[in-house]
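hey so u asked for the seq, here:
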Amino acid sequence: MTAKPGKVVLAYSGGLDTSVILRWLIETYRCEVVAYCADLGQGEELLAVRDKAVRTGASSVHIVDLREEFVRDFVFPMLRANAVYEGAYLLGTSIARPLIARAQVEIALKEHADAVAHGATGKGNDQVRFELAYAALAPQLRVIAPWREWDLGSRSALVDFARRHDIPVPVTAERPYSTDRNLFHISYEGGILEDPWAEPPEKMFLLTRAPEDAPDVPRFVELDFEAGDPVAVDGQRLGPVALLERLNRLGGEHGVGRVDLVENRFVGMKSRGVYETPGGTILHVGRRALEGLTLDREVLHLRDALVPQYAQMIYYGFWFAPERLALQGLMDDCQQDVTGTVRVKLYKGSITVAGRRSPRSLYRSDFATFEADQVYRQRDAEGFINLNALRLKIRALRDRA
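ran it, structure tokens below
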């Protein structure tokens, strides 16, 4: 029989699930529980976390400010790879989990804990993301996943447990869905969103205006990039956190960055998620425009062919796996010439490219012009076409015969 843990570090958000888990761990294992909360830019959500954790029974509380590290070392590398899952999702929740897990492991080692716990359900992706990170960073730690152990089989059962133990319940009739927020995005799932035919209620959105309520005048924004990373907005150099916050405000004001997606979870089922990623959407579109100007054709095509695989690695939880680290090296190398300025136009939920320039540009107007030029012999294209058509001609002749 496995010995009961003496001390557990719980990844704690202050929401319904982890609040119930904190109390459940204490009652089930008769152990000390350390509550750990990662500050990834949740804002006001963190104000009551410490007091709530202590009232629920935590022996101590760690709130760790990871905002700078999150944007610089996790969001920016992911953006350098142009990662998009299933053509729409910019991976705002997925990219946060490995950092949350890494800091949790560091606290567990510092606290001499023998176990870590998380609030991910047995149906979702987060359980995999957390536990793959634990395995890569501290395989000696025991992992407790209450959703896979307890008999509280539904969120309504959790609400009943919380009320019996005088734990405040954040899910209400006014907001009947769960949210996950960080500096990069906010996600919504569950509750009324489980019907994929139902349109999300407008009052749900927290970061973006409805496009129809956005300003009637477009907003032009200039983005400066250096080796694939954004460094300035409208000519003002900003650190990673300040830059993303600025773009979140601009994109949110103009209704940019909403996504409503039915996606494929790693465990095999489909789920519906609604996301707001205003600043990330601006950066994604802007970088892509600059890449068109600066990247060699075959490098760009090779990188693009690998993007779905890279995005899947993050979505599935393999951030610390050797294949992701190896692929990151290629992605970063491809970005070395992605330096320059992009101008984008934000207007009522849309974002369009209005201009781009770069000192590393491969675009040559003297070659590309439709006017007379002295550098390109159009007659050369004839042999190029004939050689590329040869196998098609031979195939057609065979089939005709």
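The chain has a mean pLDDT of 94. The chain has twelve helices and 14 strands.
lmk if thats what u needed
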